[in-house]
Amino acid sequence: MAEFSTTHRENGEVNIIELNGYLDAHTAQHLEIAISDLIVKNKYKVVVNFERLKYISSAGLGVFMAFIETMRSNSGDIKLAAMQPSVYNIFDLLGFPLLYEIFPTETEAVNKFNQ
Amino acid sequence: MFLAGFRSLLGIDELELLTANTLFVSVITFAFDLLIIVILSYLFLVFRLLFFLKQRKNVKTYFTALLVFLALASFATLLDEYSGWDFVKMAFTANAIILMTINSLKISWIAFLTKKEKKQLLLFAFGLIILFGISISLLNSENGISKILNNFSSSLNYFNLLLNIYGVIYFSFLFVITLFHLPTAEAFDRKATEVSSLQILSRLINRVLDFKELGDTITDLAIKVCNADAAWIMLTDDETNTPVAPKNVGFVTADKIQSVLFSSKNKHALNEISFASVAVCNENETKNEQFCYAASAPLKSYNNINGYLFIAKKSEVPFDDEDRNALETFSDYASLAIENAKLLKSSIEKERLERELDVAREMQQKLLPQSIPQLERLDISSVFVPAFEVGGDYYDFFNLPNNKFGFIIADVSGKGISAAFVMAELRGIVESLVLTYDNPKEILVKTNAIIERTLEKKSFITAVFGVFDFTGEKLYLSRAGHSSILLLRDDNIREILPRGVGLGLTYSGKFEFYLEEYSLQLKENDIFVLYTDGITEAKDGKMADFGVATLKNIISASKDEAVDTIAKKIMTEVSLFSQGTPQHDDITLLLFKWKNNLEKQHG
After folding, report:
1. Among B409, B459, B497, B505, the residue to mutate for chain A (most A Cβ within 10 A)
2. ipTM score here?
3. Which of B104, B448, B473, B593 would be a feasible disulfide site paired with B170, CB 3.0-4.6 Å?
């Protein structure tokens, strides 16, 4: 049914995870593994590119909540970027923009890390 | 045994009779003849029984022919008086002896005897050959018995002789053939054990519910089938690699042997049967744990390896090809049995989960208000439709002091029994908080602080807490990440969206800092609609959302309707929209319609 995939690339110190498809209770584990892999490698600066993400459920949102503390306490962060309006609405309703940095483009998010 | 008894009895009788007084003999002659007839008949029946034992083909003709020639030869003795007719008797006798020889070869039943039974048979046959031999030599010499029988009937005497010859021939063949079979007896025994073990296992395949019992049976049988001293199983889905159902082996030794078998030198061990000498790895063990050779066989099903079956032996003779074949066949059966048990377990697990969800759904239903409060100035309507997987929706109403009325609508993230538990916890927290507080923000801030203990890191709750103040005719609201509150006033519909983050998103001061205290002066016929995302995210066949806009349209068109009617309309539209797609989340809908205080207006 709903398909989901991630890709990972690096831009200097910053790790970029691209999301693709539907992020729900069934696919959330996939993203969890992708982020845990970074933590294992002591990489704490993460930008998540939402450009190709079509849908996110509450379980998908939970993934970011599970890791944000670890990233921040290791002087890193998870920054979110390039969300489609429907996805942004879900984050917005929940109040995510007050707690997470969300950027219109990936470049802006990466630049924020490099400042 | 009976046969032996009778023969030995006969032998003794013959010896005694040799020395007996002829007068005495004549007295008992008749009885003796009868006795001989009975014994011969019995003997003949026994031979017949032995002949037909485990015969598959129809061999009746052979035996009948033998019987005919025996009879003919016996009756031919009547011609003894006429010299020159001897050849008739001799011809019949020769035929009878040929048939005896042929019939004596039909002893396939000895193949089915175990080695022990074959050894016993050898002794037994040897004894009988001697007894029959003695009997023949006694009959040939011109002694008492011969005379008595000849006096009675020379045919009977000759029949006796022929039957004794048959006995000698039959048991000689039996002796020789059993002797030849003896070296292969062990192999035969092993095959027999193998077959019966596989039979036991295949019977178990469809019956065993208890995984431990299955494991025990497999290792028990593996020891028998593969000539081993110890056996155990390791399942791949168990990360600790703990031996399952170990027989005659300790965990430590099993571990050591496993590591030798799966060492890097032995790469193919993971996919096929593998043997190794393990004498070195456990030379320090106590005597009953010293194994010399070990083998492992993967338990495969549909190209997946479910685990491994291990066997080990103490003897210094390594496992041979026979053992290998046995292990191969046996591990195939065992993996089938294990796979079956696994499937059974997962279907039981599924059933259990479904029952758990039933419990969760029931629990959620019971924790929701059983009736809607009837208030003079506030019409209330509510709809709750649980999803199959239980979404963790929650709503409640509270009569507060000072002429106030509170309500909450909330949605716990995640699904199933854990969401239902968080919902129950939330209800408990809110119920106790409303006893002390009547400020929506205060209640949500305190709830957030308390729920931190229960809520998982990746879980959160969205909620709206509202308080209607009948005296001040005001509505106070705080929103923790929940969907908007819809207000229909006159002909305008609007979304009320006070700032605030979901419960559990942060436990720092930020939660309180961002949570807005919203208040609104109420007007006659104000309609408030609150909902969970089960409504707005209801999907149609093309995965499109029902959406807030559709919801707003329905409400705008229902200005003069009663709240119950509006609720029904919304639910009808939602179910029409999502026809054919399963409801994936709980649906909760709350509607309030405000009426001003008429007395106050008039006054």
Report:
1. B505
2. 0.92
3. B104
Min Cα separation A109/chain B (Å): 21
Identify the CA nearest to B199 among candidates B221, B173, B214: B221
CB contact under 8 A, B413 and A95: no
Tokens of B7: 């023969």
Identify which of A62, A86, A95 has the shortest CB distance to residue B481.
Answer: A95
Could you tell me the maximum CA-CA distance found in chain A, to the nearest angstrom?
41
Instruction: Indicate yes or no: CB of A93 within 8 angstroms of CB of B483.
Output: yes
CA distances from B89 to B99, B193, B476 (A): 15, 51, 129
* CATH code, A66: 3.30.750.24
Cβ contacts from A onto B, under 8 A:
59
Of A59, A63, A65, the CB nearest to B505: A65
What pLDDT does B209 receive? 64
Q: Is A63 in Cβ contact with B413 (below 8 Å)?
A: no
What is the three-class DSSP state of B304? strand
Measured CA to CA in angstroms, residue B456 lies from B30, B413, B505 at distances of: 105, 10, 10
Predicted TM-score (pTM) of the model is: 0.61
The Cβ of residue B352 has, within 10 Å, a number of other Cβ atoms equal to: 10
pLDDT in tens, B185-220: 777 777 777 788 778 777 776 666 677 778 888 888
In angstroms, the CA B338 to CA B308 distance is 11
**Mind telling me how many Å the CA of A9 is from chain B's nearest CA?**
25
The CA distance from B434 to B232, in Å, is 61
The encoded tokens of residue B471 equal: 């005296």
Residues of B in contact with A59 (CB under 8 A): 413-414, 458
| Domains in chain B, CATH or no CATH each | 2-192 (no CATH), 206-347 (3.30.450.40), 368-602 (3.60.40.10)
Number of domains in chain A: 1
Per-residue pLDDT of chain A (115 residues; tens, 9 = 90+): 458 999 999 998 999 999 999 998 888 989 999 999 999 999 999 999 999 999 998 889 999 999 999 999 999 999 999 999 999 999 999 999 999 999 999 999 999 998 8
Preferred mutation among A61, A94, A96, A101 to probe B, highest tally of B CBs within 10 A: A94
Q: What are B475's two structure tokens?
A: 């509505």
| Binding-site residues on chain A for chain B (CB distance < 8 A) | 25, 58-59, 61-63, 65-66, 69, 86, 93-96, 98-99
Please give the Cα distance from A67 to A79 (Å, whole number): 12
What's residue B603's pLDDT?
42
Chain B residues lying within 8 Å of A86, measured CB to CB = 545
Residue-number span of the structural domain to which A36 is assigned: 4-114
Give the per-residue pLDDT at B269: 62
Q: Tens digits of per-residue pLDDT, A70-88?
A: 999 999 999 999 999 999 9
Q: Nearest CA to CA, how far is B500 from chain A (Å)?
A: 6
